[in-house]
Every structure is written in C-alpha cells, then in structure tokens.
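Technical note accompanying the year-one report. For the benefit of new consortium partners, we illustrate the data format agreed upon in the data management plan: each record pairs a sequence with a structure-token string. No post-processing was applied to the example shown here.
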Amino acid sequence: MIYCVVPEALAGELFDKLTDYYTDDPNVTVIVERRKGSRRGPTAATPSGEPRIVRDRRRSRVVGDLPDVPPGG
C-alpha cells in the first residue's frame, strides 16, 4: 500500500486531481494530512516525568581484528 499524503493547505487544490490520477492503481491511496503538530516536542518526557534521553541506537563496532579465512570456504 502506498499513501499519497496531501498537506491540508493544498487539499482543495490537489486532492481531487491526485485521486483521479491514481484511480486505476489499487496500491495507491490519497489522504489528507490533518495533524496539527509533532507528536513529540522538545519538552517530551517519559511517563515518570523525567526528560527523554536520545541515544545512538546503532550497534557498536566489534573491537579487534577479524581472523584470516582461507579461500574456498
């Protein structure tokens, strides 16, 4: 499923045009974005009221060298 999201400010101008354009494609749905703001603002806190901690979630690199592997596996 592909969603074609139209900003609310442009919905009157684009919604009908895009709906007609994608009529023959059952995988595309045109929708109007109605959110008024971000769900997480700069003052977001955890349920306990503490400030939210943003961490790097990528895995850390393995320390050391890789062993030599003979060709031909």
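Partners are asked to follow this layout when depositing records. The chain has a mean pLDDT of 84.
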